[in-house]
């Protein structure tokens, strides 16, 4: 299964700058990922899946937990990025990691399952078929294994004191994602999505937030704005002149008010362990 999505079906660009942004974003939320992995406790020697693995930052965390005798599979629609992630992790000393290029929105079983842990971050956010994809991820969980999902709620983005430049960046990002069929409050909807996918109520949930000075936060805002800009222009959310003016105003505001408090999106998590049926196979 090696299908790929077109650029129109994915909200963000595929470029070296975007890949750097994804790595920085993943590192920002590393502690939130560690928190939920602590709750489900991937076992040494077990198998783990990172669904929508991107640049492979969470694959590294999973590899450390399953150890050299375990396996970690990363699946992503971006074959080039996944191949780079696999090579990098092998060079770092994680030979138990492998990458599979696949489109998880296709109505087919998840490759390579079942897994002891299935992890997905910021995957459902982008997919109109989010309930069907979530159900397939659950099907890929081995009896006794766990599903872990982390998703954004963009409704929390804010700044104190408020500034028109940040509000315009937030507007363009949110309206563009909505125009592309994304769920900008996917994290808030996780419990509902679990129910609709036939998984049942999560065993646990977690909410992680982040506040940082505008001086540093404006870099991720600018990078995300620039990544969604082609889609924003195509859908009439903004214009080229307006976008240039917005980025310039944001840079000026960051210089003028470097200590303004920028509230990131919330990262919400939900996890569920699959029961072992009577007479069924034991956890692997």
Report on the structure:
The chain is α/β, with parallel strands linked by helices. The chain has one domain (7-273): Vaccinia Virus protein VP39 (Rossmann fold). The protein has nine helices and ten strands. The chain has helices spanning 16-28, 30-40, 57-66, 79-91, 130-139, 164-179, 190-196, 214-234, 240-256, and strands spanning 47-51, 71-76, 97-101, 115-121, 141-153, 158-160, 204-208, 211-213, 261-263, 266-273. The strands form two sheets. It has a seven-stranded mixed beta sheet. Strands 6-9-8 form a three-stranded antiparallel beta sheet. β1 (47-51), α3 and β2 form a beta-alpha-beta unit. Mean pLDDT is 91; it is low at 1-11 and 279-284.
Structural class category: alpha/beta
Oligomer: single chain
CATH-assigned homologous superfamily: Vaccinia Virus protein VP39
The number of helical runs is 9
Overall pLDDT metric:
91
Strand order of the largest sheet: 3-2-1-4-5-10-7
| Number of spatially distinct domains | 1
Level-2 CATH architecture: 3-Layer(aba) Sandwich
% residues in beta strands: 15-25%
Domain Methyltransferase: 49-145
GO molecular function: methyltransferase activity
Keywords: Methyltransferase, Transferase
Pfam families: Methyltransf_25
